[in-house]
Amino acid sequence: MDYSPLWISLKIAVCSTIITFFAGVASAWLVTYLRGAKHVVDAVLSVPLVLPPTVVGFLLLMLLGRSSGIGGLLENVGLHVIFTWQGATVAAAVVSFPVMYRGIRGAIEQVDENLIFAARTLGMREYTILRKIIIPAARPGIAASTVLAFARALGEFGATIMVAGNLPGRTRTMSIAVYTAMQSGNRNLAMKWVLIIIVFSLIILILMNVVAGRGSRTLPVQRG
Amino acid sequence: MELFVDIEKQVGGFCLRSSFSIESGRLALLGPSGCGKTMTLKCIAGIEKPDKGTIRLGDRVLYDSDKKINVPSRDRHAGFLFQNYALFPNMTVRENVLVASHDKRYALDLIERFQLADIEDLLPNSLSGGQSQRTALARMLAAKPEILMFDEPFSALDNYLAMRMERELQKILENFEGPSILVTHDRNEAYRMADKIAAMESGCIVEIKERHDFFDNPDTVTAARLTGCKNISGISKNEDGSYFAQDWGIRLEPCTDGNGLGLDSADSVGYRAHYFKFVSESTGQNCFDCELLRVVEDTFSVSVLFRQRGNDAASDDSVLTWIVNKDEWIKIKDDVMSGTFLLSIDPQKLMPLRNSKDG
Q: Residue B74 and residue A115: Cβ atoms within 8 Å?
């Protein structure tokens, strides 16, 4: 059995999670400063969550294809996005970004705002407050969002197949492998991938519970 | 260093209009919950932004709506002690104190001074209330603020601990050169801790006075209530120079020595609960029949709730309170418990009051 889909899936999910983590923390933090435009910006950042992945894939093809400006530019610097694992990473990142962003925003909003006010009256800068106070205080939520976004990226199918295609050994991920195996009538192979994916998903959920459990124990306890 | 505050802020249906100035010294903002005390502090600290007005500290303008100045919180050098202390939960006591300090030696000295050395490696969630507060105080002072603000600092502590922390806070304030503001709803705390007291009601500062003057001669109904005056009534003047206290249903006669009651410019009158005098026979003027409503025994005194016999006014203020110390109570208990008794009022102890809304 060719295990390359497993490694390709992991590579794509890890890279995509690194991208969405930093983008998610940054945008969640910035959105908390917005007032009037908050709802609009929040909707725009969350829209890949509700769009069908094929629509996201279509839009990414339009945006990154050779005929488009950005695609041409990337082509010139030697970055081929269409039908490559990098393209699949972009697709997975876009689809899983809202999961990351919304989870982190929720976690940041849960942080006692008096902590932030106190830090400001002590003369701390906003970025220092983010690094030393907000992120540590929101860590359980941020960790849970990261695991969830990783899982979402790992299972991505629709946008990935549209942007990166189904090239064995290059862009064929586990979920695409299930689909391909079924298409070619190889039920056994499909079943094997399905089992691997189920085991993976369970591990991820258990990991998340461990992370969340650890978080709830470190919550501050008010004592008399 | 002078603190000048004159701000307005609309929050939902609530309008804050805070206006006061203090020289270096301790001010207590006294008022019921939700009257805008904390909001005033937050505006000074730059946590909340007023709609309009001015805030100046010394020669620095912290906020000026006309000149579009709004110095960010971090540059105001305003120390703020939060009600829940707001210690950073992921940092040890030592890290909390050092995190915002630019003068490490001074911060380490504060750790010693606040007896935090033994617990400096603990996280805030394993501290007691007193330890949390000492950490928060040390952290606040480590940033070298130019003004100190305390938002109900003792409300989370039990009585005994609150007294001890109060003494520590007093020491800090004695050594602090800038102005300080204490927000509280406890009049005794305000009296012990501050030089000046400001009475606040529904978003407005109605009276601001030196603390002795504030307790002895409150000008407004709000301030009188905040100083613990339990008996307050509206008044109207009679043709013969006496007054009628409408809520109490009692006629108030001027003193026999010819002095008036001093109530000419007042719309209300206050009388402290421990100034009533029990009399066994009517002395005529300023003496009235009382109908017992309820007796509440306190630790060192007894509160007698009563109304003037025959008074059919239904307002809350028609019920008067008389506080008797226990030694006295034993002697007169039987007379009072019979249901009716006589009390006299000392006209010199009547407090002329303005209704605060007009001011």
A: no
Q: What is the pLDDT of residues A71-124, one digit of tens each?
A: 888 888 888 888 999 999 999 999 999 999 999 999 999 999 999 999 999 999
Flag whether residue B73 sits within 8 Å of chain A, measured between CB atoms: yes
Give the distance from residue B82's alpha carbon to the nearest chain A alpha carbon, in angstroms: 7
Strand ordering across the sheet containing B243-245: B250-252, B243-245, B231-237, B268-271, B351-353
Residues of A in contact with B79 (CB under 8 A): 121
Buried b (16+ CB within 10 A) or exposed e, B2-35: ebebbbbbeeeeeebbbbbebeebbbbbbbeeeb
Q: CB–CB of B75 and A123 under 8 A? A: yes
- For residue B95, give the chain A residue with the closest CA: A132
Query: What are B15-59's pLDDT values in tens digits?
Result: 999 999 998 889 999 988 888 899 999 999 999 999 999 999 999
For the complex shown, is ipTM > 0.95?
no
Distance, in Å, from the CA atom of A92 to the CA atom of A154, rounded to the nearest integer, reads 8
In B, which residues are within 8 Å of A220 by CB distance?
89, 124-125
Q: What is the reported pTM?
A: 0.83
> What is the C-alpha radius of gyration for chain A, rounded to an integer number of angstroms?
20
